Amino acid sequence: MKKIDRFDEHPNYYLNLCEAAKVLSYVDYRRIESFIDNGYLKAYQMPHTNRKKVRYHDLMNMLTQKPHNSENV
Question: Is the pLDDT of residue 71 over 60?
Answer without folding.
Answer: no
